[in-house]
Design a protein that fits this description.
By secondary structure, the protein is mostly helical. It has one domain. Helix 3 runs antiparallel to helix 4. The protein starts with a helix and ends with a helix.
Length: 187
Amino acid sequence: MPMPRKLLNRILPARATLKAQWYLRPFNVLLHDPALWATHRKNVLKAFALGLFACFLPIPGQTILPALIALWIRVNLPVVVAASWIANPVTSGPLYYACYRFGSWLLDRPLGSFHVEFSVEWLWSELGRIWQPLFLGCLVLGVIVTGVSVFVLNWVWIRASRRQFSQRRAFRRWLRRQKQKRTGASP
């Protein structure tokens, strides 16, 4: 497995590629900061945590809000955006339903039955009924899932770095032995 930093550098778009995009030109002044593209562990962990927590918030602009916060606190912007896309049109329904159920359980409220109608009146009446358990469930599950995910990602990153370091050290020892064999020197 390649080190997480090398993997990120391979997957994430290059800064020059993004600067060339016409729709990002107005933001070139903001995107020049090297911290927004840094792939060291602490920067990536903060960015991942911000993006993952934002995907649990049932608000419009789930990508814009964490991207603006990433600009402000100077963490890896592509990681924030990618992590915020975990809640997408396919996954957001089950995600928010699980948050609603969890919030209802925390508030000790019975689950309501859903009767779907596509109208603004239905939407406002349902939101008025479910907003408290939904937001509580989103906040609590967001904190729990983000904490566990960041812990696991940090653990995987450190293990991969240590494995890479020990392999490099073992390779250097092997090279020294090979050199000693060629020169006839004893260890």
